[in-house]
Amino acid sequence: MRDSLPTPEDEGDRKLLHDVQTHGWHIIHVGRTIEDDSGGPDWSYSIGLFHTFGHPELIVVGLPFSTAQSIINGLGSRIRAGQRFDHGMCDSNVLEERDVRFVTMKWEEYRAHLGCAIWFYRGKEFPVLQVVWPDQAGRFPWDPDCVLDDSTQTVLGLMDTDPPS
Q1: What whole-number distance in Å separates Cα of residue 146 and Cα of residue 138?
Q2: Has residue 93 been placed in a domain?
Q3: Could you point out which of 51, 65, 76, 103 has its C-alpha 20 to 30 Å from the C-alpha of 85?
Q4: Could you give the number of structural domains in the chain?
């Protein structure tokens, strides 16, 4: 965690820094373009939760931007109020009628998914939790019967197959 903020280079940087200073975090949405043939889903992530609250940043993969923003803002408000989320935790207060699981994002995924956060933190020295959502039957992607695949929600972290104790 750094005390000083980076120097903004453009209006987007200034908006990001303003949001972090005013609200505690900023949200980035990354959409695939037609030219991008990777076939992966879009994603959204926070910047500033670690700086402001010492809490891992959050990333949501494969949900509409408006839903991902609502999830990150709701969790951010809970973090601001003192709640903490850790790897393996389940939470039933994020999505209607479904639990989510928090999964630590792998370092090797940072460069491909968190460019603005790497700029903000001036490196990859910040933790990130992916908010993993289940299929309609409540099965997570690591469950062999889950109907979600990597084109719907890529899991960027450590997939535990056993529920937390």
Answers
A1: 8
A2: yes
A3: 65
A4: 1
Does residue 159 sit within a domain? no
pLDDT values of the chain reduced to their tens digit, one per residue, 165 residues: 556 889 999 999 999 999 999 999 999 999 975 555 556 799 999 999 999 999 999 999 999 999 999 999 999 999 999 999 999 999 999 998 899 999 999 999 999 999 999 999 999 999 999 999 999 999 999 999 999 887 889 999 976 654 444
3-state secondary structure of 15: helix
Among 97, 83, 37, 85, which residue's Cα sits nearest to residue 58? 85
Q: How far apart are CA 74 and CA 94, in angstroms?
A: 8
Domain range for 61 = 11-132
**Contact by Cβ (8 Å): 87, 106:** no
Reported pTM: 0.91
156 in a domain, yes or no?
no
Non-local CB neighbours of 135 within 8 Å, separated by 6+ positions: 146, 147, 148
In a domain, 42, yes or no: yes
Is the distance from CB of 52 to CB of 140 less than 8 angstroms? no
